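Our collaborator T.R. sent over the components below with a one-line note: 'Predict the complex.' Nothing else. No constraints on interfaces, no templates requested, no preferences about which chain binds where. So this is a plain run: every listed entity goes in together, and whatever single assembly comes back becomes the starting point for the next discussion.
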Amino acid sequence: MANCYVGAKEYFPGIQKIKYEGPKSKNPLAFKYYDADKVIGGKKMKDHLRFAIAYWHSFCADGADPFGSGTHIFPWNVDAKNPMDAAEKKMDAAFEFITKIGAEYYAFHDRDMAPEGATPAESEKNLMTLTAKAKNLQAQTGVKLLWGTANVFSSPRFMNGAATNPEFGVVALAATQVKAAIDATIELGGAGYTFWGGREGYMSLLNTDLKREKDNLARFLTMARDYARKQGFKGVFYIEPKPMEPTKHQYDFDTETVIGFLRNYGLDKDFRMNIEANHAELAGHDFFHELETAAAAGFFGSVDANRGDFINGWDTDQFPMSYYETALAMYTILKIGGFTTGGLNFDSKIRRNSIDPADLFIAHVGGMDTFAVGLQVAQRIIDDKVIPDFVKDRYASFDSGDGVKFTKGELTLEQLSKIGTDAGYGKTGITSGKQEYLENVLNSYLLGL
Ligand code: XLS
Ligand code: NI
Ligand code: NI
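Returned assembly:
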């Protein structure tokens, strides 16, 4: 990665490129565990983790919440002449931040990067102007695009949905944005294109034709896929499951639901999952569950790295801080051979009252360190073999004798029943699951870094 990019004006003065100083460092602006070039399990940390910065949270979210206006003053907005000028300055600040923190990727929505114009054509022109600038900055810095997406949920015109809107005209307006965002993603060499269906769901079934909305969503995704492929897009499409918020019920509820949807509509070849930790919790699961579910079905793609709050029931999008969660997440990811097109995108925001300019850096330092620890713990789980071997042994009876026949589908229920009858009750099934033992083993890895 090249040195730090600083545009016409330095937006984070006094902050140099963040360095690795090791676990003993007390410097809040230094990595304690994330040592980009350190090799873990045959691969550099940075290539395992593929960190991406979320443009929307880091450079657009001003700390506003339903009870109060923004608290973060963005210096790039202060002296901007107009919205396009502000967007250009914001992009300078974004690339300054991304290169100073040392992330190799970023992700964006169309409207994060460029303001909406008076007409769809003007909006598209604005996006293409900023795309040209981003392309130039990517070439200068070596930063790459993890994925692009379209914000078809913030504008009032999408209050009843985008692809699932009951008015055809709105669906067509959503298409103007998705088409342009796909063009921008291709232009920027994006490895993926994401659909998060914020308003693709319902507030009440009393006013909703659920079947039609799901059919329309699938039709829209199919059109987007076909268009992107026609334009030469070789990357992966991601669906980002979330059960609710802002809708009462979102169609992309969780990984299992989305997999069923993709298979029903013949989209399972091109679409993979972008799993967000906080969304997993909202669905009544946890991050590990969603990752394992996607991995088991061959649908794993990418990660929106954040965390929720166990007491609050909404998408708090806090920076990941739990070694336990990141260890288990990285364990699943390592088991399936690591990321291919995906990465760890910090879909996380600093708190409303975190207003020091350094806070954005400190938050990312913490998140990156937390995943660096998780990666090393996960590698230890794999190298030490205790946990994976325990799981393997637990199912060993399917790997010999009649168990193999069952696995291969060579037994009928009558034959299976006869095996049970012949074996009798005895001690079959009276076996410890050893959960506490495995938890203790995992805890020892967590401390053993
Ligand atoms: C919101 C989502 C959103 C997507 C991108 O809850 O996480 O940020 O990641 O549209
Ligand atoms: Ni997300
Ligand atoms: Ni989210």
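Summary for T.R.: The chain has a mean pLDDT of 97.
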